[in-house]
Amino acid sequence: MRKVLPGFGITLGFTLTYLSLIVLIPLSALLFKTMSFTWEQFEAAVTSARVVASYRLTFGASLLAALVNVVFGLLVAWVLVRYEFFGKKLIDALVDLPFALPTAVAGISLTALLASNGWVGQIFESWGIQLAFNPTGVVIALIFIGLPFVVRTVQPVLEDTEKELEEAAACLGATRWQTFARVILPAITPALLTGFALAFARAIGEYGSVIFIAGNMPMVSEITPLLIVSKLEQYDVPGATSIAVVMLAISFSLLLLINALQAWQRARSGSPA
Amino acid sequence: MSALIAPSARSRSPGGTQEPKWVRVCLIAVALAFIALFLVLPLAAVLTEALRNGVHAYREALREPDAVSAIRLTVITALIAVPLNLVFGVAAAWAIAKYEFHGKAFLTTLVDLPFSVSPVVAGLIYVLLFGAQGWFGPWLQAHDIKIIFAVPGIVLATVFVTFPFIARELIPLMQSQGNDEEQAAIVLGATGWQTFWHVTLPNIKWGLFYGVILCNARAMGEFGAVSVVSGHIRGQTNTMPLHVEILYNEYHSAAAFAVASLLALLALVTLAIKSVAEWRQGKILKALGELPPERAGVYAADALTLQPAG
Question: What is the pTM of this model?
């Protein structure tokens, strides 16, 4: 009964073939290549001091940036959904800029702004704070990259929250802050967590916007994706592949986590999958 | 039920579910300041830096042969990658949105996979397949075919990175529209292709259009994956983002920003089209939502009989 519509076989067949050719077979090449190394080789490649320092920077900066995005992403989504102000449509459209702007362009532009002779950088320079060519710059670039993920996951959920619940809370004597903390926030928590995980996952893999602003000093401001590239440039294919497998395992776990979060959110909002 | 609630809702004071005015103003101000600092300022910086040495230098930077060949390669790459992912996106959305089958959730996750893979890893996997030491490397060398450090590698990496965009845009859209109209069309004797062309496509066209535009923006702007497979050969395997990097690293800042400004304009056009497409698609969804299911079927049948199959 369900399959009245024609085209199931051909569309699914094409989907699976194309998916295998472009994504699955190439990704499995990475795994097979790794299996050809000995465990000692693999371990040495993924736990050398320089690589561990790069994990620390990549994960630390991504975590910090995603947390900043949760706070400001929620604020931006809230303001866009709940308030009316001049230029709201324009701001709403602009939120997607980091999706559409090529990462290399974002990278050189942020560097030009934050370097000690840039518009923003020179203000901070006079206070003795350097924003570019250090881990701070990495965090700022990752905030830029991750912002739309939080806004765009929270915004629709905030639009769908039932006004009646807030009215009930107000009728029962809750202050506005209590209503927000006890009624609205629990309703949007799954969306906030999803947005956080999406921004975090994107930040971990980010390359283009970070390498210009990071300064790329080994042990200090070198991100893991850059390390893969530099190993590859030195023809250290085993080293690059080993680190890439670690990155891939982490991205895949995050993807599963995000899926679980989205399922939770659908269950919470009661809409069919 | 709603008639019971309405009078009390009307009589309550607005203060109960609305923040005080000063809170609203403060929140709006902080949000706008954040947007200005993180989104508007970088965009403004690209355009000012591009014009730093005047309009003449700007035009020269874009006319220079290496820049022209980078622009050409970027356009060619997008012209191959976007149609491939368009066909895939429509096929995948049709299979996933219109039918129930085992492993559907898993398939959807796999379609999303390229989103969460670092672009650098995306480039690396093709090097491992087609590079000099890769699986097919020796065979490719024997037959004098170049994929890595050549245009095919750039196209492949771009296809990988932009793989989910159109499918992701279409799957929720087609799921929300259900199968009623298509089933009506099939029952009335339309072929599968006619049903897609005359019934499904008009309902999803704006979502599809936006998916294509976003896919294109990402295809033209991809940096990490392309950087790994390109080899950075000037005038041959340099796309626009790679050309920006080279110019920037050689301290030709104004020229780098001139090329970057083209990509920034592309991003702005993409955002403008997105706003229009969302608005139009929203109107279509609303119109469909207002029709009762039986009526929607008749409406679809009308559309079909009005345009006899060619």
Answer: 0.88
